[in-house]
Amino acid sequence: MKKISVIVAALMVPGVAMAWPWSTDMMNQPSIKPQEGVMTPFPSRSVPVTGIPTKVSNREETRSMVNPIAVSEASIKQGRNLFKIYCSACHGRVGKADSPVSSKVGAIDLTDGYVQNDLSDGWLWGTITFGSYVMPSYGVVTEQGGSNDLSVEERWHVVNYIKHALVKDAAAAAVATK
Ligand code: HEC
User: Fold this and answer.
1) Which residues is 142 bridged to in the sheet?
2) Would you say 108 and 115 are in contact if contact means Cβ atoms under 8 Å apart?
3) What would the pLDDT profile of 147-174 be if each residue is shown by its tens digit?
4) Which residues contact 149 (CB under 8 A, 6 or more apart)?
5) What is the CATH number of domain 59-176?
6) What angle (nearest 5°) sits at the alpha carbon of residue 111, between those of residues 66 and 128?
7) Average pLDDT along the chain
8) Is the pTM of this model over 0.85?
């Protein structure tokens, strides 16, 4: 009787109860897990099935590019989210160049006429893609660093946000902090 109560007590301790030879974790299985082994290279000349291919190789070539993504609520919303994540650290939460590091890195106000009227959609996209003088790139990895964190479409969403909602957001933020 004593023996049985010891076994029952042992079974109630999770560590012991799980230690049976047949209690294996479902993680341990013969399938190949993500990042495991050597990735099969893509066949040469393969192209992604999603996304918009681009042929530009520097910012100069982007100046006259036409924005393929229509301005919509959804595009602006996505652009706003990405802007907060990737741009606000230097350019401020609503582009006013008022973040703690804005003046240190020399980030410019993105709500002023220079950016809003003088820079084309293509140039904005090109600046995000290839970076600027101090500003890092978000579409290509270059010798200066940078990243390809933002997809082609995501960069256009950020452009739509800058050109069609940033000024409004900045005005609303200014009222809210008065
Ligand atoms: C690490 C800081 C930093 C981050 C992050 C950053 N920028 Fe900049 N950006 C700058 C600086 C500094 C300048 C001005 C100097 C220069 O042109 O490099 C600038 C300039 C610009 C310009 C003006 C380009 C021109 O032709 O004068 C645009 C547009 C711009 N940034 C957009 C963005 C967008 C959109 C993002 C987010 C995807 C972003 N920046 C993220 C630092 C940054």
Assistant:
1) 145
2) yes
3) 989 999 999 999 999 999 999 999 999 9
4) 86, 138
5) 1.10.760.10
6) 45
7) 88
8) no
Question: To test ligand 1's pocket by mutation, which of 132, 137, 161 has the most ligand atoms within 8 angstroms of CB?
Answer: 132
- Protein residue with its CA nearest to atom 12 in ligand 1: 107
Token digits of residue 107 = 């980030």
CA atoms of 157 and 120, how far apart (whole Å) = 14
Q: Which residue bears the tokens 């990737």?
A: 86
pLDDT at position 141 is: 86
Amino acid in position 158: V
Q: Are 159 and 150 in contact (CB under 8 A)?
A: no
Instruction: Kindly tell me the burial class for residue 81, based on how many C-beta atoms sit within 10 Å of its own C-beta (0-12, 13-18, 19 or more).
Output: middle
What's the pLDDT tens digit per position in 33-90? 777 877 778 888 887 776 666 789 899 999 999 999 999 999 999 999 999 999 999 9
| Ligand 1 midpoint to CA 148 (Å) | 15
